[in-house]
Specification:
By secondary structure, the protein is of the alpha/beta class. 31% of the residues lie in helices and 20% in strands. The chain has six helices and eight strands; from the N terminus they run βββαβααβαββαβα. The termini are far apart.
Length: 244
């Protein structure tokens, strides 16, 4: 029996009434929320393994839009099934093979084109959670069109020194009690970025927080965690505002 890496119970969630709407862009469905005023700034949100329909991720999209960004969460699983709480962790490695966070370039390009041509976006940032955090790390190495990135508890893949040569400012957020990402990995990331990264970056670890902590809706937060969740979200927005 493999330990469930997501200590936040995904089954127990209060319902959420979304503020945005769904669109289809080429072969991809997406959830979009816009601020009430015109802006040429946009943010792409990359969902975790629970996919683009998950209420928590839509809440985050609405939250970022509230800070003045056209915010979009595309279905990076392209219509295939997200991970479900009823699935068995023994099958997770197999599922991941079919859902590779390093193979998001084509979808990212489609969404960037949509934001620039249909929404008039001139500056575009990207934020991703868990699976999406890994995708953000990958895209910040590959896509110069992304002005700034925030990777939240994306597992750190160490396949080459190129993994640290980020193209634009990137902020890495971790929880101290995340048992999918060891503290040594975070320390190594810091050492390697110091060595190879030529742009602004930041790493921050939030005390006592488990994997998935930063995307909870207010009514689903435990009182002890609330200040750290709110701080992580404020830090995320502040990072975006600094560059976008």
């Amino acid at each position: 029996q493999m330990a469930d890496p997501f200590l936040y119970g995904t089954g127990e969630r209060s319902p959420y009434g979304c503020l945005g709407h769904e669109v289809q862009i080429e072969h991809i469905n997406a959830y979009v929320c816009r601020p009430s005023f015109f802006t040429d700034k946009a943010v792409i949100v990359i969902h975790d393994i629970f996919g683009w329909l998950f209420p928590d991720i839509r809440y985050i999209v609405d939250l970022i839009a509230g800070h003045g960004y056209i915010t979009i969460c595309p279905d990076f699983f392209k219509g295939t099934d997200p991970w479900k709480t009823t699935d068995h962790w023994a099958d997770f490695a197999g599922w991941m093979k079919d859902h590779d966070p390093m193979k998001v370039d084509k979808e990212a390009d489609v969404v960037l084109k949509y934001l620039k041509e249909q929404c008039g976006a001139k500056k575009i940032g990207i934020v991703g959670f868990s699976w999406g955090g890994m995708a953000v790390h990958h895209l910040m190495l590959k896509n110069p069109q992304l002005t700034a990135g925030v990777s939240l508890y994306g597992r750190i893949i160490r396949d080459s020194e190129e993994r640290y040569n980020l193209l634009n400012p990137t902020f890495f957020i971790f929880g101290e009690k995340d048992h999918t990402i060891s503290y040594n990995q975070i320390t190594l990331l810091e050492e390697k970025l110091k060595q190879y990264c030529k742009v602004a970056y930041k790493i921050k670890v939030y005390p006592g927080q488990v994997h998935g902590f930063a995307q909870l809706k207010p009514e689903d937060m435990k009182p002890d965690d609330k200040p750290y969740i709110e701080e992580a979200r404020k830090d995320m927005i502040d990072w975006l505002k600094m560059f976008i």
